[in-house]
Amino acid sequence: MKKISFFLFLFVSILANAQTFTLSGKVVDKNQEPLPGASILAKEIKKGTTSNFDGEFSLPLSKGTFTIEVSFIGYKTISKKVEITKDTYFVIQLNSESTVLEEVLVSAVRVSAEIPVTFSNLSKKEIAKRNLGQDIPILMNYLPNVVSSSDAGAGVGYTYMNVRGSNGERINVTVNGIPYNDAESHGTFWVNLGDFASSTQNLQLQRGVGTSTNGSGAFGASLNILTDAVADKAYGEISNSFGSFGTRKHTVKFSTGKINDHIEIAGRLSNIYSDGYIDRAFADMKSYYLQASYTDENTLIKAITFGGKEKTYQAWYGTPEVRLTGDIQGIEDFIINEGLNAEQANNIRNSDRRYNHYLYDNEVDDYQQDHYQLHWNEKWSENWSTNLGLNYTKGSGFFEQYKDDEDAADFNNLIADGTDVIVRRWLDNDFYVVNFNTNYKTDKINFISGISYSNYKGDHFGEVIWGEDLAPNVSIRDRYYFSDAKKTDFSIFAKANFAISEKLSGYLDLQGRFVNYQTLGITSDLIPIDVDADFNFFNPKFGFTYNLNESNNLYASFAVANREPNRSDFEGGVTTPETLFDYEFGWRLKTENIKLNTNIYYMDYDNQLVLTGAIDNVGAPVRATSGSSYRLGLEMDADITISDAFSIRPNAAFSQNKNRNFFITRDGNPTPTPLGNTDISFSPSIVLGNIFTYNAAENLQFSFLSKYVGEQLMSNFSSAISNDDILDSFFTSDLNIVYQIEPNKIFDTITITALINNIFNAEYVDRGYYYTYDDNWSNPGTITTVDGAGYYPQATRNFLVGLTLKF
């Protein structure tokens, strides 16, 4: 009997020890974003798994103690002893290898949920799902209150985005804290950052004034981009995608991983090409990214260079309404009114909504831009850290145009009257930046102070490279105009987030910005431009955050922003800066399955520079001062997990955007006609978006994305003159499929991605203009003619398919 009892005891003990339990959990980054494809390994038995699209993992283990190692490319590997006696669940947070960069460099321009600023984040994981060649503004299209567009209609080449109705000239963009906006135009030319999404670790879009940042002031939003983190382990990646309109993207990435635990070298080469949806509107973008890093426990030094060369065919003149509607008589009238020659007339007769005004083979934009950055981040103690950032940017290029039957006076008499001519208009510039920030952080306060200085020098000039009949003693490439420009921008700021009580925290942000802009010479219209202007701005911001409980907080803030006119404004006679008073009130909810952000904003402007609805002779929007105006809106966005398989991410924005007491003066009539409160141009009152995600299997994900943009006006007259200024509402949907394979040999992962854009084949336009170029346009309330509207039609149903191999 004793023997039987002994064997029963032994059998039960063996059975108990042989019992299998499940170690499960979720791998996330510091922002609680899931990390798909993270490796989870029980080292003693060399048994492991990887996390799925939502960062979830499950690993069966027998009873015992194991060393669990969790790793992910670009993040610090962690190991932890875990005793397995029952089913166990962990949330594992991995920190980026660039922890110091995240906390010091980016903290100077970024915010978190503890700060009373309205913002959205986009992680590398979310970017990768749709990164098949389209530019960053297109990839950001589903963020709250964002409207994206492109000249060529396919999301490649010249692309744009509006936030809260403010266009790209009013959105401050930084890359690793370095200003990226062009110093003179204030614009962001994404065409010069081909495939930059492939080198982006994450980005943050702050709506409204946001926190103090470097470079030109944020007047609708600020976007800061963090480039790739330092990788702990060596890797390689080959990515190719193909799609409609001859679109293709080829990308090669690599990292040496940390050599001797300190040094990493990583890089990328890319080529993106697309014929474009619009006729002849091709884009050819070659780009690179290279970084060398040194890290130890308290130091991160990064040397980064990126840039490339782009060549795009012009499509900035848009498509006339008669071509979109197929109005045969209207097309014939258009031919007569525009004075088109036989070739141009046949072009518009035989085209469709993809019509492009330009026919000359080399009507192209050809530009190269190279950036060189050096960052030194140092953690001096548990509380103190610093960042020094240096930047040099070199840009040089031209756009080429064929012009027929031109007047000699328009080209400084380098040609004879009535001559056909080909010209190139050049921009050659140099841009230097120095940033320095300090960060003091305790449990009660996070204090950041810093300075930023930039120096810009640019030459604008035009060359005649061919002419049927040149003037005597004129040679090819003689210049018909020239002006130089210099701009210095110095800012100093101090900001603090501090605890007032257990539930209440305060935020104070003070910035001084001092700008000098000088230019001398003549413009492309041969008009003198002689500017020497100083601007001294004080931009205070403050607010409060109140934590109702662990899941809910409320915030309120007030911010002031000032912004100088850009070069085109000076050319149009605008010299007065604009001022914005931004009021924000929001509620944030965060539970296990629901994240909800809701905010109300009121943006009150003095001398806001609104888009008039006109375009100039290079297709750029013309701005003018509208006097007093405001934007009042409600924004909501959520991330809701319905089950392990289903989630939705809806967002909505409802707004009222008004010029106060607007008036017009027409046809030389000295008596202005009052229009009262009119709608601000290109500011839709409704913008809706949603991403519905279905995880069909551990390695297969479907996402259905939808976007609705309400009716917009292309002028500030609220259709008081004609209905030609109405831009109709539109609704589009995309389908995104991601399938990942983990082979046992050669490759770590093989990812197949498909994207069907505009799946329901909607015909729509998301941007346009109300007037063609008019030298007399100098005030939004003054108009002599309505010279017909033009539109930028976007692509109907189209697709992109990609294959990414990681090893």
Largest sheet report: 22 strands, antiparallel, barrel
Question: From the coordinates shown, what is the CATH architecture of the largest domain?
Answer: Beta Barrel
Indicate the overall shape: globular
Tell me the name of the CATH homologous superfamily of the largest domain.
TonB-dependent receptor, beta-barrel domain
| Category by helix and strand content | mainly beta
Helix content: under 10%
What is the total number of structural domains? 2
Number of E-state strands: 45
Instruction: State the CATH topology of the largest domain.
Output: Maltoporin, Chain A
Strand content: over 45%
Mean pLDDT: 90
Calculate Rg over CA atoms: 29 Å
H/I helix tally: 8
CATH class call of the largest domain: Mainly Beta
Low-confidence stretches: 1-17, 773-781
What is the straight-line distance between the termini?
Answer: 61 Å
Q: What does this 3D model show about the protein?
A:
The chain has two domains: 15-93, Immunoglobulin-like, CATH 2.60.40; 235-318 and 356-806, Maltoporin, Chain A (Beta Barrel). It is built from eight helices and 45 strands. Helix 6 (328-338) runs antiparallel to helix 7. The protein is globular and about 90 Å long.
